[in-house]
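Quick one:
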Amino acid sequence: MAQPMDPEDTALWEKANRHLVRYGHYFQPAIIDSAHGAFMTTTDGRRLLDFASGQMSTILGHGHPEITEVIRDQAGKLVHLYSQLLSRPVIDLAETLARIAPGALERVLLLSTGGESNEAALRMAKTATGGYEVLALSRSWHGVTQGAASATYNSSRHGHGPATPGSFVLPAPTPYRPAFRKGDGYDWEAELDYGFDLYDRQSTGSPAALIIESILSSGGVIVPPKGYLKGAAERARRRGMMVIVDEAQTGLGRTGRMFDHEYDGMVPDFVTLSKTLGAGLALSAVITTSAIEERCFERKFHFYTTHASDPLPAAVGLKAIEIVLRDRLAKRALAAGERLRAGFETMMQRFEQVGDIRGRGLLMGIELVKDRHSKEPAPELAHCVMRRCFDCGLSTSVIRGGWGVFRIAPPITITDAEIDLGLSIFEQTLKDCLANP
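Output:
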């Protein structure tokens, strides 16, 4: 675990080292005391600009006054109920999600985490189709519960046994380093055909679902080419699969639309939301059609959890959507994203180690490489930059996997001045790491 940066934190770190389970990584060398807007404050008084919006969840920034007011008000009225009891916030949030969702998606299941919502969507697809085979992309991240983890390929599987039977992988799209080429371009259709052909050769004839992220965030902030989502969905449906789009990190305005998959002009059978929906609270949702929900109910679909349909997070989710729509924050995310991209493109002109800039709106991937010609990943450089950014007051996220990719996902309420501050810290630390690795 990380060691204390300030003597006053020694006792806290000793307790942390003694009592906390390490869930896949070391903790960063700071203890957060409070947060407001785009900034966090540590117990030793340092301010950190949050370029990851918590765990990509505080889409409206930390401590948004209207969210805080809703939490206080709802906590005084109704927090939790038996999962078969309903409340006004739950019904109102379901209606709102049905109103803004594309196509005929109008039935909603409210849960706590993204893993839960994906688990439920997978179980519904299996129930509705009668199949059990699930396809996911090779750089996917859908959660850590059994079904969701079995469809997650950008995480370690060591030490806890086999995946769920019927788990199949498609090669993730590779626009920056094309594995399939057509002339000088990327032949993603041939890559999809290859992946589905491999599935056909292994299938036992029990297709259930394709689960896919519209942008593979944890997989390197990979933006599939135009037409990819629609093409993957068409191939899946020809085989009898339902299509689940996981919008945990892309949903509700971060990329410029309320639902990112709409950029590709396709409508899935399920959309799952989490992270951004709760604006920092644990809240997730499955949205599907009436026909699918009716079929699942007839076939005795079962997904009881203690915190299904809880009133408090539902009230927060309702307010978060209201703010995003009212304040036109999707449009703001596009404008802020253009400013952020322009800053990184300027850096790209100065440093050949900035190999690729990708993403949409305020979900951006910056890939550092040893040189732009070889495109060889530079994970050591990325971790150097991340550590020194942290020391200089900028909290960033380097994606696991050894690629050297930064995921930049600040709150969509971030100001231009805060974007410029983050860019200046990043550029200075990149320069320092190149000069003194």
